[in-house]
Specification:
Helix content: 40-55%
Strand order of the largest sheet: 1-4-5-6-7-8-9-10
Strand content: 15-25%
Number of helices: 13
Structural class: alpha/beta
Radius of gyration: 17 Å
Amino acid sequence: MSYLDDIIAWHRKRAQSDPRDPKMLRSLLEGNRGNHATRGFREALSRGGELHVIAEVKRKSPSKGVIDATLDPASLAREYEAAGAACLSVLTDGPHFGGSETDLRTARQATQLPVLRKDFTVCELDVIDAALMGADAVLLIASALSDRELRQLHDVSRALMINCLVEVHDEEELSRAAAIGADLIGVNQRDLRTFSVDQARAESLAALMPSNVIAVAESGIRGVDDARTLANAGYRAILVGEHLVRSTRREEALRELRVALPS
C-alpha cells in the first residue's frame, strides 16, 4: 500500500468506530451559528494583486520525518501573520503528521487569519469537527473520496458556512472538482501515493481551471522562483509548509513568496 492508502485506511477505520450522531451535532452547530463565525478563507485569497501565501503549521510528515520538534503553533502563526500571510493551514492529523486540534485552536487564537484544517477528511463528522474546532476551511482530497463522498462533504461544508479547498492531482480529478461546483481548488505538486514532487503538474492544470475558481498551488514550493512561476501560470495562492517551517528566517522567506500577479 502507498502512503496515502495507509493514511486513508487509518482515518476510515477511525470514522467507522465514531459513535457520534452527525445530525445531532449539525443541529447544535446550526443553532449556535453565532458562536462559530468564520473569517472568510476564500475571501482572503481573492483580494489584491499579489500571490497570497497560505502558511502551514507542520511538525512532521511521513516522508520527511520530524521537521521541527519544538514548534510552537502560536509563535509560528504570529510570525506568519507579521510577514503578510493571507491564511494559515494547520495539520490536525496526529499519527502521521504530529498535528492536533489543539494546534489549530492555538494558532487561530494567536492571529486574525482564516485557518484551513489540513487533514484527511473522509466523513461528515470530520467536517463537523473542523467547524467545532474553529476552522474556516476544510480540505477535501479528491483522490481519497468517491464522487458521492466528494459532493456530500462539499455540501456539508457549505451548509456549515466553512470553505472547501478541493485538492486535485490531474485533469480527471479537476473535472470532478468542477462538477460539484468547487470554487477553491488546490493542485498538489506532490503525489500523495509516492510523495515525489512534479513541479510541472500545477503549471499544466492552471490553464484548465474554471473562471470562477481561485487556484491554489500546494507542496514542493522552494522559494521565490517557484512562486513567480506559479503566479505567471495563473495561481492566486500557494500553500507552503516545509520551506517556511525549516527556514531560519521565516518572515523574510514568506515575504519573498508574495510576488506580484501578472497584470
